[in-house]
Amino acid sequence: MAIDDEYFGRIPDPKADATPATRSLDLGLFLTWEKLRVAYNAILGLETIMVLLVDRPRDVSPGSLLPSLVVCLIAANVCFCIGPVLDGFARLIGLRHRVITGVIFVSGTIVSLFLAYGAIKLVDIRGAID
User: Fold this and answer.
1) Residues 6 or more apart whose Cβ sits within 8 Å of residue 111
2) Short-list 121, 92, 87, CA closest to 106
3) How many CA atoms lie within 13 A of 103 on its CB side?
């Protein structure tokens, strides 16, 4: 079965070719990364709390940080979505192993930790300049 597309012409229907094993693999990938999202948010949340408790930006009240933290939280979760996409591509080319998922998660989380720290320090620098 195929789908007629205005731009690409006739393309195969991915659902028609999907086997139960393929569908369970897709669901398994999704569920794995949703479990990892909880750990990711906990790790970034702990880092943010520790940095703010130890080295809160100068002349910035906790209430004024809230909007910036919400924006950073949304941005961090959007960035998190890169992980399942990379893992999905890795699986498409035959790299289906928990180690691949772990490497993607750990490396992405480390990058996010540096970005989160940088974002907090950016608020500190902006507060010092204003």
Assistant:
1) none
2) 87
3) 9
Question: Taken in order 23, 29, 32, 35, is the CA torsion positive or negative?
Answer: negative
Q: Which two tokens stand for residue 28?
A: 């398994």
Average confidence score pLDDT of the chain = 77
Domain boundaries, the chain: 20-129
**Rounded Cα–Cα distance for residues 85 and 80 (Å):** 9
> Does this model's pTM top 0.85?
no
What distance, in Å, lies between the first and last C-alpha atoms of the chain? 61
130 confidence band (pLDDT: 50, 70, 90): very low
pLDDT given at position 129: 41
Given a cut of 90, is residue 67 above it in pLDDT? no
DSSP assignment of the chain equals -EEEETTTEEEE-HHHH--HHHHHHHHHHHHHHHHHHHHHHHHHHHHHHHHHHHSPPTT--HHHHHHHHHHHHHHHHHHHTHHHHHHHHHHHTT---HHHHHHHHHHHHHHHHHHHHHHHHHHHHHHHH-
